[in-house]
Structure formats: C-alpha cells, structure tokens
Amino acid sequence: MTLGRFITRHRTAILGLSAMLVAAGGWAALTMPLAVFPEVAFHRITVIARSGNLPVEQTLTAVTQPLENVLAGVLGVEIIRSQTTRGGTQIDLTFGWKGDMLRSLQLVQAAMEEVRPSLPPDSRMEARLLDTSAFPIVGVAVTSRQRTLAELSDFVIYEAVPQLRTIPGVYRVELNGAKIREYALTVDPERLVAHRLELGTVERAVRDANVIIAGGQVRDGYHLVLTVVHGRGARADTLTDIVVAEDRGAPVRLGDVAQIEAAVREDFTRAAANGKPAALIGISRQPTGNAVVISDGVRDRIGSLARAHPDYVFSVFYDEADLVHDSVGSVRDSIAIGLVLAVATIFFFIADVRATLVAAAVIPATVLISCIVLRTFGMTFNLMTLGGIAAGIGLVLDDAIVVVENFHRHHASGQAGENVLKVSMGEIAHALFGSTLTPVVVLLPLGFLGGVAGAFFRPLAVTMSVALLVSLALALTFTPALATALEPVRIRPVRRNPGDRLTRWLVRFYARSLGWTLAHAWVAVLVGAGFVALAWVAYRHVETGFVPVMDEGAFVLDYWAPPGTSLEETVHMLETVDVILAHTPEVTAFSRRTGAELGFFLTETNRGDYSVRLRRGRRRPIEAIMAGVREEVHVRSPGLRVEFVQILQDMIGDLSGNPNPVEVKLFGPDEAALERAARAANRLVERIDGVVDNFDGITDVGPT
Q: How confident is the model at residue 295 (pLDDT cuts 50, 70, 90)?
C-alpha cells in the first residue's frame, strides 16, 4: 500500500488522532514547569562547618582536617578543595559526571555524621548538592520605619516565612539579616567572688533552668492530665529569679550576680534593602517547581501580608520569572513571525487560501505535540528548550511548505483524489526523510557532550530533534490529509499569482549564472577560497562565551573590604555604594548582604554582595550601567574591591566552581615567589583590552 493510498483511506483517523495529540500537547504545555535553566546537577557538593569563634589554626586542625580525611573516602570524589576562616570551613567536593549525585550526597552526609563526635562541641555542619535549585529564584526584602530590627525579624520568622513555605513548588526559604532575640547576661566578677561562685556554675544553672520536661501523668476521675515542668525564661524578670547556688544556706539568684538585658544574637551578618536595614528572604524552587507559579504565589502572599501589616514594606529585588516571561515571549514571537512568513510566502507563490491555512496549521501542531514528548522526558520550559523550539521553527516550516506546494502543483495540473497524493508524496517522501534527518544527525553530537556544556546543550539538541521528527511525521500524514480534506471539489483553472514572474526571473538568472560559472571554474575556486579565508578571519575575531550576551535586567556587585575590617566599618564603607546605586536612575531596587552572599558559601565579615534590579523598558544597556557604577565606586570608595556580573552568569560560575570567566592558577612551594609571579601576571592581564575587575589573588591576612 502506497503512502498516498494509506492517507486517503485513513484521512479521518489521521486528522482525529492529530487533533487529540494537539489537545494533549496543549495540556502538557500549560502544565510544564517553567524555569531559566534545565535541571542540571553540577556534580559538586559543598560542606560548610561552623565551630564558634575558634582561631584559624585551631579550626584547621580540629575541623577542616578531620572532615577532609573522612570525605576523601567517599566514593566518586575526584577533587577536594577547602577554605578555612575563623570558626568555619567550607569544603568543595567535585565528583565525576557519570555518578548518581543523590547517592553521593547521602554518602557525604553519612561521612559527616561519622566524624561528628571528634569535632568541637556544638559544631554545626550542612552539605548541599549544587544544582540550579541551590540559588533563590525570588528575593524579597522586608523593611520597616516603625519597627525595630528585632521586631521585624520576629514578624518575618514567625509569620512571613511560614506562609511562603506553603507555596507549591518551593524548596527552601532562607533568611539573611534577621536577628534572633536573646538575653545578654553580664556577670559581675566581684559578686561572684563574694558568693564564692564560678562562672561555670552560673552557666550550668541557667542552662538547667531553661528546659521543658514532662513531669508525668495525673489521674483526675475520668481524666488523664499530663504535667509539665517548665523553667524557660521568657522575660528578664523571670530570669533574675533563677537560683544559681546557695551561700551559707541562703539562695543566690541570678539577679544577685548578673545584669540581664534584652539583646539579639550576633551572627556577624548584616542586610539592607535600598539603604535601610532589612531582612532578606530568598525563595528557591524544587526541581519540578514552576518559577512563574512560585513568583506569582510570592507576590500574592506578600501582598496579603502588606495589607494585613502596613508597618512593614515588602520589595522584590530579584525575580527569575521576569527572564522566563521574556523567553516565553520570544518563542511566542518566533511562532507568530513564522506563521506570518509561512502565510505570506505560500500565498505569494501559489495564491491559494486553503493551501496557506494547511501550512499555517503545522507550526502550532508541531510545537504542541513536541511538548508531549518533552513532558514525558521530564523536561521543563527553559532558555535551552525554548531556544530549541524557536530555532527549529524554520525547519518545521520547510517540511510543510514542500508538501503543500507539491500537492498544490499536481492538483492544479488536473490530478485529484488518491492519485494526486500518490504522485505528489511519492516524489518528495525520500527527500523529506533526508532533509529532516540530516539536521537531527548533526544535533546528535550535542547529546554526547560531557560536563557543564553537555548538561546545558543536551536539552537544546533534544528539543530541536523532537520538533524536527514530529514535523516529519506531520508532513507525511497530517499535512497531506488536511490538504485533501480542504481540496476543492471542482478543479479550478490555474491562476497567475504574484510569485510567477519572480520565479521565472530567478530560474533564468540561475541558469545563466550556473552556465557562466561552469565555463569559468577557476573564478569559482578563487571566490570560494576567498570566502573560506574571510570566514577564518571572522572566526578568529568572534567573541566567545558560555551563554549568549544578554541584558538580564539585574546584576550582582561583589565587594571586598580590606582584610581584617570589622563588620561595622565594612557597613560604613558601603554607605557610599548605597548612595551611588540609589542615585542611578535605572535602578529600581537593590539589596545588600554583608558577611553573607548569594548562594551557599562561607563568607567573612569584610565581604558580601549587592543584588541590583533594573527597571524594565527603555534604558541604557546593562553593561553601560555597570561600567558607570564601577567607575563611581572606584573614585568615591577606593578601599573597596568590586566585581560586577549579571546574575545568571554569576550563578553558572558559582555552580561550576569557576566564579570568574578566566582564572590563572599558580602552584609552587615558595610562597614569596608565587606572590611575585601573581603580581606580575596580573599586570600583564590588566593590559588586555576588555579586561575589568581583575585581581592578583593575593589576600593579606587580617586578625584571626
């Protein structure tokens, strides 16, 4: 049975099945998660351990080395790097790309528990798998003019954060800058001596009194009552009554030997939004979460909180959904442009409304049916998959145009029914297979790329391949079936159309050009060689990068104060940067973290970052804005070292373990020689055109 006869006999079934697949594809497209990047595990795990305020040397021997020794035995670990500061250590583990990272994370956590008994008491450890969900997709700042930072923190911790955690698809809700209330006890040494007490006795008394213990059960008739003994001090006056010890038979209360004041826990971090003290909330999504749904949920919740609590001001300083909306809009525009071009091209050359409608129907059908396959593979709408759809629109159109044009040509010549399908499809079926499978084969190598590049470009290759194969299947079934269904009953005479004259001219021009070229083959060789040389020169001068240069509408400003700078002095230095950003007309909101930074890192008190959001619409390019802010910071605050990067580029660099686009690493046993070489290399690098924010890597050690 020929393809034409099969389509004629099963036309209704083909159209009905296609309609059902299109409907299912519409459902898949509406329910598919939206994100900026594909779901990529970067095969890196970061472990952070904190042990109070131990000096660096003691932290290195008591925390870093035991952890490194036990983590080195985890299966699949290829590289271990550590960074040790006062009371804290960060260990980065790199695994091979063929391993199961969830299993590796469990092995790392088991190794951490194995070494926990040998670490200093009260040490806290956490391990995280670095993937695209490790960074927040929405950032919210909470400020207040009427409330203190402690009151604002209580509101954020006990009311705002619990509501945000209930949004479907939310993975983590993390805080920066929020302060935990506590009571500060200032013990009087003279009173301790007078009552013959030690500081440890006071500490144990407070610790033992601050408990809640079940006292047992009491039967009261038919009721069973649970008794609870609780000695928690919620107020300063209750803490003063805690009995520390007895002195000559008289109780010594805590208030007799210490002064008690309300305070907040010092965590050596500070946060601000638009120059005012703030609590920053970072919301990250689950791997299957929808960035747009989460963003809408966050805005809905903070809107309700703002109406219920007018004392607090909420501002969004980063929203990944903006980029997702732009990406979806770009694909929508590509599909619309493709439809317009298809309609215009076909109508221009064949002047047939029915044939034009058939070709126009193929693009949305292909995109929607492709969504079924992508959803089955567990993929999301992201920059790569949406880019694959947009890039494949032209190839999808090519199959439809070939089928429609050939069918129309045979039908106009007087053929009809099964015969026109048999002849027209028989002529182009093999060509359709070859022309469609060729780009699919070209895309295959992208599916076998390793590392970060493979993880990002594999979804692009899969999406384009799926769209091309779906378009091939539709070109062989749906397009001819729909064309015969819309075929006019009576064969109309061939009409002249606007493209006839252009086609005849192009054919004559091509024939003359080909004849001249064949007669002067040496000219064709020279012209071809010239184009090859020109292409090589262009290739050598084309800028390179992992992701395309684009304006994300937001950027990160990383900063470093001189080593050893106190937290308060660092914040004071940053007030100048606050003023610069506030007076930059394109900036709509910004947040600052000091002693912390975007992501999961161990950060010292003299460094941190800004997240800056720009207004949408017409404005200067983001590179010009960053250059202007950079110049002002260098002039007005020369003591700060700063780096500027757009958020997505910063995220990819941090996740892949290479935060800078280019890094030069020097190794050797002589520290003084390494420092001289580093300074000399940095002087050479800074002369390269286009290099900004360079650093020689030498950090003078501050107080430890």
A: very high
Q: What is the domain extent for residue 234?
A: 181-264
Question: Number of folded domains in the chain?
Answer: 4
Same domain, 354 and 227: no
Q: What is the pLDDT of residue 494?
A: 54
Q: Which residues pair with 262 in a beta bridge?
A: 183
Query: Which domain CATH number covers 106?
Result: 3.30.70.1430
Q: CATH number of the domain that 231 lies in?
A: 3.30.2090.10
* Residue 13 to residues 26, 29, 482, Cα–Cα distance (Å): 20, 24, 11
Percent helix, strand and coil across the chain, each rounded to 5?
55, 20, 30
Give the per-residue pLDDT at 421: 72
266-303 b/e (C-beta count within 10 Å ≥ 16 → b): eeebbbbbbbebbbbbbbbbebebbbbbbbebbbebbe
For residue 534, being part of any structural domain is answered with no
Give yes or no: residues 22 and 49 share one domain: no
Q: Give residue for tokens 């698809």.
A: 169
Per-residue pLDDT reduced to its tens digit, 269-278: 889 998 889 9
Residue 401: what pLDDT?
81
Distance CA 561, CA 91 (A): 23
Q: How many CB atoms lie within 10 A of CB 607?
A: 21
Residue type, 370: S
Distance of CA 521 to the CA centre of its chain: 54
399 and 350 within one domain: yes
For range 644-665, the mean pLDDT: 75
Give the tens place of pLDDT for each residue, 302-314: 999 999 999 999 9
Report which of 421, 415, 408, 416 is spatially closest to residue 5, judged by C-alpha positions: 421
Distance CA 322, CA 7 (A): 45
Q: Please, are residues 77 and 96 in contact by the beta-carbon 8 Å criterion? A: no
- Please, where are the H alpha helices in 195-320? 199-209, 236-239, 254-257, 291-308
- Which pLDDT band, with edges at 50, 70 and 90, does 704 fall under? very low
Is residue 280 within a helix (H) or strand (E), and if so which, with residue range? strand 279-285
Task: State pLDDT tens for residues 421-436.
Answer: 777 777 888 888 888 8
CA distances from 493 to 165, 401, 412, 501 (A): 68, 22, 7, 18
Q: How far apart are CA 571 and CA 272, in angstroms?
A: 10
Taking the alpha carbons of 328, 334, 339, 340 in that order, is the dihedral positive or negative? positive
Q: Quick one: pLDDT at residue 164?
A: 93
Q: Report the share of the chain in percent with pLDDT over 90.
A: 23
**Same domain flag for 333 and 462:** yes
Structure-block tokens of residue 618: 């017409």
The enclosing H or E element of 95 equals: strand 88-95
pLDDT in tens, 454-495: 777 888 888 999 999 999 998 888 888 888 877 765 555 555
